[in-house]
Design a protein that fits this description.
The complex is a heterodimer of chains A (231) and B (378).
Chain A lengths: L2 E14 L2 E14 L3 E5 L6 H8 L7 E6 L2 E2 L5 H11 E4 L11 H6 L9 H14 L15 H13 L5 E5 L7 H18 L2 E5 L3 H4 L4 E6 L2 E4 H6 L1
Parallel strand pairs in A: 3-8, 3-9, 6-7, 7-8
Antiparallel strand pairs in A: 1-2, 1-4, 4-5, 9-10
Chain B lengths: L3 H8 L3 H35 L3 E6 L5 E2 L2 H6 L4 E14 L1 E11 L2 H5 L7 H9 L3 E5 H7 L6 E6 L9 E10 L11 E5 H7 L6 E2 L1 E6 L5 H11 L7 E5 L3 H9 L2 H30 L1 H9 L4 H30 L4 H4 L6 H27 L3 H5 L3
Parallel strand pairs in B: 4-8, 5-7
Antiparallel strand pairs in B: 1-10, 1-11, 2-9, 3-4, 3-6, 3-10, 5-8, 6-7
Helix pairs in contact in B: 1-12, 2-10, 2-12, 10-14, 12-14
Chain lengths: 231, 378
Amino acid sequence: MTAIVSLGKIVKNYGRGKQSVEVLHAIDLEIQAGEFLALMGPSGSGKTTLLNLIGGLDRPTSGELTVCGAAIGGLSNSGLAAWRARHVGFVFQFYNLMPMLSAERNVELPLLLTDLSAAHRKRNVAAALEIVGLSDRAKHRPSELSGGQQQRVAIARALVADPDLLVCDEPTGDLDRATAIEILKLLQALNTTQGKTIVMVTHDPLAADYASRRLYLDKGLLADSDARSAA
Amino acid sequence: MKYLPLIWAGLWRKRLRTVLTLLSIVVAFLLFGILHGVDAGLAHVMQYQRLDRLYTDSRHGTPLPISYQRQIEAIPGVTAVTPQKVLQASWQDEKNQVLVVGSDRRWFEILWETDVTPGQLAALTATRTGAIVSIACAQRYGWKVGDKVPLTINLPRLDGSKSWAFDIVGIVTMDGHEDDGFTFMVANYDYIDQARAEHKGTVSNYLLRIDDPIHGNRIGAAIDSMFANSPDPTITYSQRLSGQSDLNETFNVTFFTKSVIGAAFFTLLILTANTMMQSVKERVPEFAVLKTVGFPDRLLMAIVLGESLLLTGIGAAGGLTLAKFLMPLARDAIGVAHIAPTVFLEGALVAATVAVVSAWAPSLRARQINIVDALAGR
């Protein structure tokens, strides 16, 4: 297997007033292509910070960060934006859909950055909505969809440009148990049937059970969750 | 074009605010169109009333010396002067009246409302007894070019006779007098002056053109003060009313209309900029999501600019279209019932300027959004 994500001695500091707080302490991590990794830990442990670094939404203070073959820490803003568009799909806890756009227009957003024709974009959008089981809701706006349906639209948006990596921040955090399980099964299916590498931040041990590997982050340091459980 | 649905959706994020802003833009451009129409109407009035055309007459009704002509020509702002010896004449019968104006070709240059041709003017200059007559004269008396017409004028010639012969060298139509039967003739002043027995070297009045209507009062005062202590003092006035000229000197309508338009657009600029800024501020998480999926900063700026252009473009088109349909209602008041195409072009440029300037700060704000902070609600 090849590592799609490689972190070497990654440190991330945040400025709070005049003070600088180190949130991640020399993290070393490799994620193999095709893995479904659950990143767990208490609030403030640095899970989302780590996820943001892997997804190219933020830059490390120091260390080496290679994702999908690119040393993304050194990319310019526009270079990083282009890299995200090509390689990463994002799923958020609160879906983050554009409220004025229909489901299909929301899903189409990443494709606007490509050279695909309108007809081709439409086909890809239809395929993504088909995968998440929302073909019949294509014309609906987010306000006309349930939470689970909105998250499915968000997953379709994350999938539509066929990224190498899916980055999910608490994707079931705003959903009831039954809906959460549907979403987790969907993510699992994407991992197993389409080979998508998924990195998911979650508080929920049940959600983590759907992943192929679990990591525990505490106070900016990584520990093997399975080993933790065994201990 | 593929971003249009996104731009359109962003524009209508807050429907009421967009409608109110749009209405403000429509009203501003309606004002823009109407005031430009008023301005054009005033220009039309100025043109029609010929406020740039003055008469210098005798203050006491006595003839004025021909020597005044050169002195009047020397006054700054006077661009042309021609003498007028106005005579009442009749043809064959007392009832067949003709107004004879002894002048020269400059008369037609100052009173340009005729359709006189350069050939007719050349013929008038070349023919000492030549005369250009109104179409009403020609039609009423059956005159044509080449005719020699004898007129009776109550001005004795050197031989004592009152019969004056004129050779018709041109027939003209005069704007505003096409159908009123105005029978007039313009003949050479020199011919009349040299052939008459009395009041030689005098004129009834002078007709002059000035460089700008708003200089009318100043030039008139300069002329009249020049001859104030002479035996033949003058009084100078515009073709319409000197009061009209006063209006323009004390109340510059063009300046007024441009000031109102300027104030309206300054307010509009603030309003549109505020709307765009509010709109971007409320959509920070949405812009953050766009950035997350890979929209580059310059594209976000272009989207904000696109929203602003669409907003002002729709408003400007609405306002100017409304003005176009409302202008005919103002026909009676200002005499012009349409908006020139250049006003639409100017309006488009103004709309684009308002859009770009008002979108500048909001688009920078969109560009500077930090994804991590915005998604975390900070």
